Q: What sequence folds into this?
């Protein structure tokens, strides 16, 4: 056994107690690990399946200290953890994936600079801190374009479309003074994502890419296999490996890609398990959650080969009304997050619909 | 939605906090339910993945009351729950599977009488309370035979083989005065088991039978598909449905069967999820744990069809030394129970090895 390999019975600290933390904790339990959740919100979904929950804010140094001292490794379910909290935690306990992945992915400009530095394609982009800078950026990038906060955006939040220069002042006002980035629109046929994993000793494994459809800025469905030529599929996997290696990454990462006539363009990277990888729970022997846990505890990666065609369908808000129907559907696996309050736009669960994989034609 | 159907966010009480409770709690979380574990032992394996744990004995009426009042339905991971505790709990909260299944399965004589009443075959058996009764029973049943305590036996505990009448006194002494049953040996080729499920409205679903190999009285491997003719497979499933319906059963049950030249003989039934059904975690869309939870919360049963050939291998005691090797094996899913102390004969985990299912020959 590698020295770095945590033994069954060790405790994993997870920053964030939402559905991703919940499913990470379940995966950790399969390998004999207990989880301790750190989450500012009360009654977090992950708390139902964790050995311990700390309810505290990220500026509570005493709580962070006690948390870090109670666990053997720290991971996280979201990338927007305050830097000061990370500095403090890192002085007490290893954090995986490491700081570099967080530094890069917490800021859209830093992330795009990093990707461009790897010779990967991104949408045209420019930093925007003033209305004048926005006008300059629009002159270069053109419309339509999209203005986004550099930090702390998710699920379409902190974004404004600019269809013509006249929309610029309102879009800028919507950023509420936050440093922003203007991104040019990409003429893409569809979006795919690769869920990649890298172990502590540099082993890389990627799941088969999935094809994503969004509605109202929120992921609606992911379908595997995605519509990709075999060379596109190869490109998608290799560029993901490239990103993982460049960051000396440990854990699972989601890489969103636009498919265009000029090749694959990287939309964004997420240094964590990813909604578009939920299909792996029912399509693979080892799902993305266990793969992430394996990586962060220093285990070898598991077998992520796909044994079925899957469509993952998110259940948002009042989609929960359909649960009794979905529960009775054949070849369907429901995954609900135990959230008490149904809210519009809130991710409440997902369903994985399976079609057994056809044997390859010979 | 059926009135009996518990909604996401409800709490399931589980009596027993071992590995079965642990895996039931994980399955419950997938459907949005929280679990409250009642367990006399400290730091139970299920506690790592439960919203709440009560550490108390089964004669602690105050603890039982508080537990029952905090949950919406009660289920259990083992059948040997003291009757007084059940009486008390049942007065406060529904228990599923119901009392009849426990009454029948808690006593080997009652169980065999019940099976015989359904026209099912069992080993020849006779109640033994005295050494004289044992001599009489041996005269009828012959040797070899096996003497077992009527109640509270598991994993080969509370059993003694009698190869010749001269062994009788020692075997009887081993029962330590507990009411016992003498069972005749069955000349069987192999053992199979059926994991059956029945919903609250009487829907029945069975997993494909698995073939079991025991070592030292403990399950060693379960392999699917089992060696059975199609008519034997049909018989196995139908007799399981017969048992489930006769008990008005709600939940998952394990039915162990001996395969003989004269047909299938029922070895024993277990009114709970069963070690020989662990393969379903990686061979089916819906595993036995979720199937059990679905039944006890009043949901429709899920799709338990099998998509792979699987060999489940228990990890007992020092088998844990092989974890680092198993972790790197392809097509293998590890399931560890998080038990801190490795003890001889203790179930520490299991591994499911998969072979993708071959398409049926046409």
A:
């Amino acid at each position: 056994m590698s020295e770095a390999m945590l033994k069954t019975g060790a405790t994993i600290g997870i920053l964030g107690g939402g559905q991703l933390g919940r499913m990470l904790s379940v995966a950790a339990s399969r390998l004999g690990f207990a989880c301790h959740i750190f989450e500012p919100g009360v009654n977090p979904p992950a708390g139902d399946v964790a050995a311990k929950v700390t309810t505290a804010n990220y500026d509570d140094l005493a709580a962070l200290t006690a948390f870090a001292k109670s666990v053997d490794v720290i991971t996280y379910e979201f990338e927007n953890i305050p830097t000061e909290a990370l500095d403090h935690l890192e002085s007490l306990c290893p954090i995986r994936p490491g700081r570099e992945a967080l530094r890069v992915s917490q800021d859209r400009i830093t992330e795009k600079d990093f990707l461009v530095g790897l010779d990967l394609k991104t949408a045209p982009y420019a930093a925007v801190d003033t209305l004048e800078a926005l006008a300059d950026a629009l002159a270069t990038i053109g419309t339509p374009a999209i203005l986004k906060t550099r930090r702390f955006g998710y699920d379409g939040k902190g974004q404004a479309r600019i269809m013509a220069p006249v929309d610029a002042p309102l879009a800028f006002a919507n950023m509420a003074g936050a440093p922003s980035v203007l991104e040019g629109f990409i003429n893409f046929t569809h979006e795919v994502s690769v869920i990649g994993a890298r172990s502590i000793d540099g082993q890389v494994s990627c799941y088969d890419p999935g094809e994503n459809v969004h509605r109202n800025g929120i992921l609606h469905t992911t379908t595997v296999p995605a519509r990709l030529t075999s060379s596109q599929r190869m490109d998608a996997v290799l560029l993901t490996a490239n990103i993982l290696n460049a960051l000396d990454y440990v854990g699972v990462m989601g890489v969103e890609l636009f498919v265009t006539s000029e090749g694959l363009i990287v939309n964004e990277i997420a240094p964590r398990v990813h909604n578009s990888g939920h299909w792996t729970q029912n399509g693979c022997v080892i799902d993305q959650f266990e793969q992430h846990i394996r990586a962060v505890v220093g285990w070898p990666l598991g077998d992520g080969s796909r044994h079925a065609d899957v469509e993952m369908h998110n259940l948002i808000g009042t989609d929960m009304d359909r649960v009794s129907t979905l529960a009775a559907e054949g070849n369907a696996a429901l995954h609900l997050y135990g959230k008490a309050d149904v809210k519009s736009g809130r991710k409440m669960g997902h369903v994985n619909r399976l079609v057994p994989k056809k044997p390859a034609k010979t």
Remarks:
- The mean pLDDT of chain A is 94.
- The two ends of chain A are 41 Å apart (CA to CA).
